[in-house]
Design brief:
The strands form 3 sheets. A 4-stranded mixed beta sheet has the order 3-10-9-6, with no helix packed on it. Strands 1-5-7 form a 3-stranded mixed beta sheet, with no helix packed on it. A 3-stranded antiparallel beta sheet has the order 2-4-8, with no helix packed on it. The protein contains 2 helices and 10 strands, in the order H-E-E-E-E-E-E-E-E-E-H-E. By secondary structure, it is α+β, with helices and mostly antiparallel strands.
Length: 173
């Protein structure tokens, strides 16, 4: 009787492993087929640049301009999550003062479903660009006069690359 239970358990385990493997293979095939037939390709030729005024008076808004460029001959898309193209819903920037201390992010932190739905993607036409701005004071604890460095760290979610950091001096009145 014990041998029967062991053999039955081993058989069920083997069969379930085969069916899981088969489901995974079908999912992968259908996912890749979906990706090939979906609208524009994702961000292979997309990159972004940040701009900020070099000197900002204490009390003024700290406005960061974020521009996405498409150098490709076809339309491309990127996920707007972890970019300034959506309201401040996540920490996608590292903001550090002159001493290297990171400024605390005080904005919202959204929980996300994966993979991102189609509505979370923004299309950029060939040889075109899109820009938006964000006020960093709404999400980062920038209060003391100092020189600040901003580094984009949201590339894993958005698919965008930003090679250069930007700096500004937040100073007296």
């Amino acid at each position: 009787m014990k041998n029967y239970k062991i053999i039955l358990s081993a058989t069920l385990l083997t069969l379930s492993a085969c069916s899981v493997n088969k489901v995974k293979n079908n999912t992968t095939a259908s996912d890749s087929a979906k990706n090939q037939t979906s609208a524009p390709a994702t961000s292979e030729s997309l990159f972004a640049k940040m701009q900020i005024k070099p000197a900002i008076t204490v009390g003024d808004s700290v406005i960061l301009k974020f521009t996405v460029y498409n150098d490709a001959d076809t339309a491309r898309q990127f996920c707007k999550w972890h970019t300034p193209f959506e309201p401040l819903m996540s920490k996608y920037l590292d903001v550090k003062d002159a001493s290297g201390q990171e400024m605390q992010y005080k904005g919202a932190m959204a929980k996300r479903i994966m993979p991102p739905p189609a509505s979370s993607y923004i299309k950029v036409n060939p040889k075109d660009s899109l820009s938006t701005t964000v006020d960093l004071l709404k999400a980062y604890d920038i209060t003391k006069p100092s020189k600040y460095t901003i580094i984009y760290v949201g590339q894993n979610m958005s698919g965008l690359t930003v090679k250069d950091s930007v700096e500004f001096v937040y100073g007296g009145k």
